[in-house]
Amino acid sequence: MDMEKMTAYAVYRQAIDLDLYYAFAELVAGTSQEETAWPSYQQSEAGQIWKSEADIENYFESYDLRYPGEVRERFEEKLGAEPRIIRALALALGKTRTIQSDNMFVGNQRGDFIRKVRRAADGDVYLLGALYLLETDTARRRAQMDELTAVEYHRAEEALFILSLFDDREEGYRIMRDQIIRLLGQGSTFSLVENRGVLEWLIRYYAPYVKSYRGKADLTLRTLMKLPYMNMKPDGREFSILKAAGYSSEEITMANSLFVWADRIPDRLSWNGTTAERIAAACCKMLLNRPEGLSEQLYEYAGWLLIRYDKFPIQYEGYPNLWEAVRHGLAPTAPQTILWMQKSIRKDFPYRFDAFDPQYDILAEEVERDDYWELFTEQMLRSCGEPPLRRWLARYQKLTGDDYRNGFQDWHRSSSRAFALLVEKKELRLWPFFERYQADGYASPPLRLIQDYALNVSSWQGFRFVRRLLQKYTPPQLQRFWGDRFYFHRIFIRERRSYGSDYTVSVSRHFLSEEQQRQLWEWIEGSVFQTEPERYREFVLGALQSPDVQRLYDKKLLASVLRGLLSTGVREDYAIRQMKETFYSKEELEAERRAEAEQAEREEEIRREKSRQEKRERLEQVYDGTIASLTEFMRGFYGYSDVKVALDMVYEKLLELPSGCAAGFAPEELELLFKLFGNLARYNPEDGQKILNLAGRMIGGLVA
């Protein structure tokens, strides 16, 4: 969007052909023989009350007019004689008076045109203003200005036009102040939005003079001067002042936003700050929430803001862009606004409207079919059954000429909810629907809907459908419709980490009896067994832990299943012990504990015997009849029981030695022998006397 092309001088466009004004003024500046003509013209136009809003290059070529005098002479023939045209030419001639040269006019072309203007000027403020600009005599100019300022004007644009004629802006404002504050104050008909360029000019060149008057009468005008510099919030003082003066909330909000882009005001708010972002959000919400439709320009402006702020330079309140900042505050009701948003913004949004109200029929006509199906469905789902569903389907048929159910052939955001509604209200029968689309492939929207709703057994209708489906097809055959990776049982399984015992199986459906829930469980079990037999054991283990299964089946039956599972070699863990506590009787648990204890004892005895045998074999390998070899044998045993068993074997070997054998031992060997006796006594205190007798026998009467 080009902001320059957005209407900013509506009041003057109605009164003056501004395109012609600028085309003629530039023609004069371009054909002038004055060396400074063009710079002088540009300087003069920079402070003009209005600006060009159109491309006026080559404006006169189509009329075959080449120089200013020719335009003046032939304008009625070529352009017409409407007041707007005469005003444009007269004002442009007056504005360029100082840069005109003799080569522009032939004969009395200029004088004849001025005489025409004088004849038509009576009561015409714009022609009188043009005559003032054309006047060269200082005294007559002063008299003309006095006459112009003496008039009591009834339109703000006329008073502002007179103000623009003054060379001395401060004097001009002092003289015209009373009229301007009256005409822009209470009861003003001056549109801030359509004439923002005029107000922009007033703020740019007259704000200091306006602010210098501090009286109550000037309060509204002083407040208007603040539009480019602040966020005028509805609960703010400035907003209230303008509201009290008769400006509407919508007009204030819109003007506040437009002035963010007012190029003539260099010190205005920065467009990329949080204040400007908030202003844009307030404006966008105001425009799109208006109960009446907007003009094409205003829709374009709203769209331009959303594009301009597609990414906030500074994210106020965490919003990444303008859409996210406004979406939760939008409630569009105007049909044209909803239509525009659908076509231009194309964002997911919960529109609300009465699909039975004829004013919204335009949506069915203009919105693309898939998008309208979504729009219509949202309204139907929110209706809570009023009017009845059958009337909604008939309404859609009337608006579009199509059966609503055909919309399920494509995927929509609301397809699942709408599908469930129609099935449960018996406006769509699952089996005929399946038969119609079964050949479309597993990725088709109709089969996806059946999978998500019916195969999940979301309702009684879904249960009946699955029952009929499994009567006709085996679980492996279902992959013909829903693909090679489809497994019926997986719909009911929620894995936590892996497929094993770390998942749950849920068959609880409040609308099914216990018998029907058991039937559902059997379908799931059969599916696992037939399509993934390698996972059947893990599946049963997980199913036994399901509260649904425990509720549906007798504990004795579940206990027998668990025993059968354990007989296949399943490792017993905490979960299985918990299931035993749940399924087994007290007698079974006690008998199992006894059996486990006996088994543990047998296993422990076997382990001990094995350990003794290993020690005997080691002793036979190490022992060579010396005390040193017995000491070597004892190395490597650290546990109490291991040391004690090994010492017992050493004791047996010592008994085999002859009496008094120690008398021939070297001192080192005697030391090792005494250490062995000491260890024997420490580990066998009850056999102390026997150990002492053995020692006495081996070393003779020394011990006694």
Keyphrases for this structure?
2 strands, two-stranded antiparallel sheet, 60% helix, 704 residues, elongated, mainly alpha
Helix content: 55-70%
- Please identify the oligomeric state: single chain
**Biggest sheet descriptor:** 2 strands, antiparallel
Task: Work out the helix count.
Answer: 36
Q: N-to-C terminal Cα separation, in Å? A: 123 Å
Shape: elongated
Which class best fits the helix and strand makeup? mainly alpha
Secondary structure: number of strands: 2
Give the overall pLDDT as a whole number.
Answer: 90
Strand-helix topology:
Layout: H1 10-15, H2 18-31, H3 37-46, H4 68-78, H5 83-95, H6 109-120, H7 125-134, H8 138-150, H9 156-164, H10 169-183, H11 196-211, H12 219-224, H13 237-244, H14 249-258, H15 274-289, H16 296-308, H17 322-326, H18 335-345, H19 361-366, H20 369-382, H21 389-400, H22 415-424, H23 430-437, H24 445-453, H25 460-472, H26 479-482, E1 493-495, E2 503-505, H27 514-531, H28 536-544, H29 547-552, H30 555-566, H31 574-583, H32 586-622, H33 627-634, H34 640-655, H35 667-683, H36 688-699
Antiparallel strand pairs: 1-2
